[in-house]
Amino acid sequence: MKAAEKIQMYLKVLKLQQIAEVYPDEAEKAAKAKRSYQDFLLRLLEQQVNARIEGSINRQIRSAGFPAIKHLEEFDFSFQPKLDEKLLRELAGLQFLNESKNILFLGPPGVGKTHLAIALGLKACQARKRVLFYTAEALTQMLAADDITGNLQKRLVSLSRIDLLVIDELGYLELSQKTATLFFQLISKRYERGSIIITSNKPFEEWGVIFQDDVVAAAILDRLLHHSYTFYIQGNSYRMKNIRPK
After folding, report:
1. Low-confidence residues in the chain, pLDDT < 70
2. What is the DSSP letter of 92?
3. CA dihedral defined by 229, 115, 136, 212, rounded to 10 degrees?
4. How many other CB atoms are there within 10 angstroms of residue 115's CB atom?
5. What b/e sequence results for 28-48 when a residue is b if at least 16 CB atoms lie within 10 Å of its CB, and e otherwise?
6. How do strand 164-170 and strand 195-200 relate by DSSP bridges?
7. Most buried of the four, 9, 91, 150, 229, by CB within 10 Å?
8. What number of helices (H) and strands (E) belong to the chain?
9. What is the per-residue pLDDT for 238?
10. 124 near 164, Cβ under 8 Å?
11. E-only strand ranges, the chain
12. Which residues of 117-131 are buried (b: 16+ CB within 10 A; e: fewer)?
């Protein structure tokens, strides 16, 4: 077996796939440029490390469960001129995660709440933070199922340990008293332990209707708003802006 073949075999055994892919070209370039062995090895290792980081980020993005990929850079702030663009770009620096602060986006359908929530979640994934995205309906259904099977506490502990929990569409459907209680348990478990981003079409004064209990709603809001940023987004729907009446 030739030396080049042995190198490829050993790289695959060591699971250094990226080096295995670039080694022949890098070896040829190094020989032509008369690079040192140290420089040649450094270039190979840099590409392997970068590939692993990229792979880790891509896996995190997939496991987060985003319904779509949305970037902050794609958001049309000119369509929502009253939105605090400067603050949102500061939040994209993710300091709010280090401080376990929450972010709430409130407003009617179609104004960009979910886009912004996903965009910040994506920034967190790119920083190699653990992120999970759920609609409020899917989340509460999951908690209710866990409660029935006896896995609720295990689930709450698991959800309390991730860096960022994104809950979308809170308020589109009213919760039962049981699921409202389960939602409260989750918020309490994450209180001052990890950040939450919530989007809702309902103002805070209507959250008692969502949870069918003003006391539970007040307790949830108390914990969410203690350390938080709230954005009230008004205006027309993005999805409707290009539709012309016939």
Report:
1. 1, 238-246
2. T
3. 60
4. 20
5. eebeeeeeeeeebeebbeebb
6. parallel
7. 91
8. 11, 5
9. 66
10. yes
11. 102-106, 131-135, 164-170, 195-200, 228-232
12. bbbbbbbbbbbebeb
Q: Decide: 78 and 144 in contact? Cβ < 8 Å.
A: no
The rounded distance, in Å, linking the Cα atoms of 27 and 88 is: 45
Quick: pLDDT tens for 138-147: 999 999 999 9
Decide: 197 and 103 in contact? Cβ < 8 Å: yes
pLDDT at 212: 94
Q: Do 169 and 138 touch, CB atoms closer than 8 A?
A: no
pLDDT at 6: 81
The dihedrals phi and psi of 123, each to the nearest 5 degrees, come to: -60, -40
Rounded Cα–Cα distance for residues 229 and 233 (Å)? 13
Classify burial at 170, counting beta carbons within 10 Å of its beta carbon; exposed 0-12, middle 13-18, buried 19 or more.
buried
Helix (H) or strand (E) holding 138: helix 136-149
pTM: 0.87
In angstroms, the CA 56 to CA 48 distance is 12
Longest dimension (CA), the chain: 76
Give the residue extent of every domain in the chain. Answer: 3-64, 72-232
Q: Name the amino acid, one letter, at 134.
A: Y
Query: Which CATH number describes the domain made up of 72-232?
Result: 3.40.50.300
> Nearest to residue 152, comparing CAs of 177, 192, 185, 178?
185
Alpha-carbon gap, residue 133 to 199, rounded angstroms: 11
Please say whether the beta carbons of 168 and 138 come within 8 A.
Answer: no
Compute how many other C-beta atoms are within 10 angstroms of the C-beta atom of residue 80: 20
